[in-house]
Write a structure and sequence with these properties.
- The chain is α/β, with parallel strands linked by helices.
- It has one domain: 3-Layer(aba) Sandwich (Rossmann fold).
- The chain is built from five helices and six strands.
- α1 packs across α5.
- It is globular and about 40 Å long.
- The mean pLDDT is 96.
């Protein structure tokens, strides 16, 4: 069986979402048989989506929405991805100052068009990033990688 590939696409300004992305990356790296790529939204491309078997999206909540950088990633890849009918699993982690649900709702709405299927409950971390938030992000990365390797997703 060939290795599975997990892509983690994120944007951070304050560093909070970056901490979550790093924790998810470390968790995913623990799963043997899964190659993991951690990239900023601005550096991620359609080729990265085609490479991966599953993806985690991380963003701060900005005005009740995802970051402009993650939206830019979707804008650059959405229509070029159409011919590929990706049908890949994804998860979301949000660093939120409010409730984070607006960002999740809009990511889910856009993801349906690729199509991508959310396979994990969104991780919404409100306020300052805590050790518990980092542990949850670590678990999300590990769970996503393990699900890919085991063929669950």
């Amino acid at each position: 069986m060939s290795a599975k590939h997990l892509l983690i696409v994120y944007h951070t300004q304050s560093g909070n979402t970056g901490q979550l992305a790093e924790a998810a990356f470390r968790g995913a790296q623990e799963e043997a048989g899964c190659s993991v790529k951690l990239q900023t939204a601005f550096d991620s491309t359609l080729e990265d989506l085609l490479w991966c078997d599953g993806v985690l999206f991380g963003t701060p909540e900005n005005f009740g929405y995802m970051s402009g950088a993650l939206k830019d990633f979707f804008d650059r890849t959405f229509y070029p991805a159409e011919p590929y009918a990706l049908n890949k699993p994804y998860g979301v982690f949000i660093s939120a100052g409010n409730d984070g649900t607006g960002a999740v709702r809009e990511i889910d709405r856009i993801a349906k068009g690729y199509p991508l299927t959310r396979v994990a409950a969104p991780l919404i971390c409100r306020g300052e990033i805590t050790p518990a938030h980092l542990a949850d992000a670590h678990e999300l990365g590990l769970t996503m990688a393990a699900g890919l390797v085991m063929g669950i997703f």
